[in-house]
Amino acid sequence: MFKNHIKIAWRNLWKSKSYSIINIIGLSIGMTAVLIIGIWVQNQLKFDNFYSDNENIYKVFNKNRSTEGKINLQGYTSGHASPALTTDYPEVKRAARVGWSMNRLLSFDDKKIKSNGNEVDPAFIDIFDFKIVKGNSSSALKETRNIILTESLAKNIFGDKDPLDKTIRLDNKELYKVSAIMQDLPANTNFNFSYLIPLVKAEEYSPNWNTIAFQTYIQLKKGTDISAFNNKLIDIIKKKTNNELEGSLFLYPISKTHLYSKFEQGIPVGGKIDQVKLVAGIGLLILLIACINFINLSTARSQKRAKEVAIRKVVGAHRTNLIIQFLSESILVAMISGALAILLTIITLPLFDKIFDKPLVFPSSEPTIWLALAGFIFLTGLLAGLYPAFILSAFKPIKSLKIFGQSKKIPLNF
Q1: Burial class (CB in 10 A: 0-12, 13-18, 19+), 248
Q2: Residues 404, 397: contact at Cβ < 8 Å?
Q3: Which end of the chain is more exposed for a tag (fewer CB within 10 A), N or C?
């Protein structure tokens, strides 16, 4: 039965080529816009949310109160925060400091490339488990003159040569040995580096608790109550400085730092999540407009389909069968439009890289994406086809045939 409905639907689309092309193009453009917005929204929702121990990774904020009583949060801390947390609090599994991002010159033979990188504590690799494709992650940053390169940077510097154990020079000064190659960073992370080197001058950069110099990240042991742990940190700076400095430390989930980064009086009140919701709403509005356009075109052809409906009813077709037939046509149009929209999305995504700052990639390797797309296409076809299907199937055969028997066109009643 279903196969028969699809056959008839295809014949009707082929018979009315101009109408079908207009419908397919209109719907596919709308679906393309929705897909691009959907990929961007998914990218934003997964920002720094993909680490294996994600629920236990936190960013450390410096928390202080101004003379006016306003609570301020800073995403940078003293270099003394990390060792203090690791030493004094058994709940802390690992801690790592990340220095300022620096654009430095990397040289190998006659090859010279400028690239962004960071000085980090060795524990950084263990906390965030970025994939090491060459070398040993456990020892990659143990030596003070080791350097980890991303795959793309290693390719740019060494070409097809094996980069491991090669020596490169930074800023025409220090020599570093390539100890590991890591996978390029995904687009949905706030980290932005092409190389990592060990942090060896922490005391020089931040000699006391009053010097804010590092981003600090903490990995807590499983089962730790974050609220109770944050309460323990309320007087940590005062204690460590013998009451010379006010302020405290505050741990905030790494998975929330991108979308919920706006604070008022030390409490998260939103952030980029508001922009994500707005863009998602625009995407749904675009889809709704595309579906309404489809509905208008379908109902505009209602008089042409009235005779077909009348004849089908005369020969015994039930209204349910007619509804299924019209829905089949709608879903078939949605399937063709969906396939075209996927192709257009893949082609146009690179054009949006500059708009979105980081490259967006169509996640074709994820099976769940294809299931979601199939559901999206089916629901779009259903949404666009329900109204025309019920309207067209409601035509009364006698009135429809009488109208077509007259030379003068009269509006249909149903």
Answers
A1: buried
A2: no
A3: N
d(CA 287, CA 303): 26
Cβ partners under 8 Å of residue 178, min gap 6:
135, 146, 147, 148, 149, 154, 163, 164, 165, 166, 167, 168
DSSP 94-133: EEEEE---EEEEEEETTEEEEEEEEEE-THHHHHH-PPEE
Question: Which among 324, 322, 320 is positioned nearest to 311, based on CA atoms?
Answer: 322
DSSP 37: H
Dihedral of the CA atoms 189, 191, 193, 196 (nearest 10)?
Answer: -120
Quick one: tokens of 39? 């990929």
Name the residue among 53, 47, 49, 82 with its Cα closest to residue 218.
Answer: 82
pLDDT per position as a tens digit, 355-402: 766 777 777 777 777 888 888 888 877 777 776 666 666 656 555 555
DSSP 3-state of 173: coil
| DSSP category for residue 234 | T
**What is the per-residue pLDDT across 282-337, written as a single tens digit (0 to 9) for each?**
998 998 888 888 777 766 665 566 566 666 666 666 667 767 777 777 788 888 88
What's the number of CA atoms in the CB half-sphere (13 Å) around residue 71?
A: 14
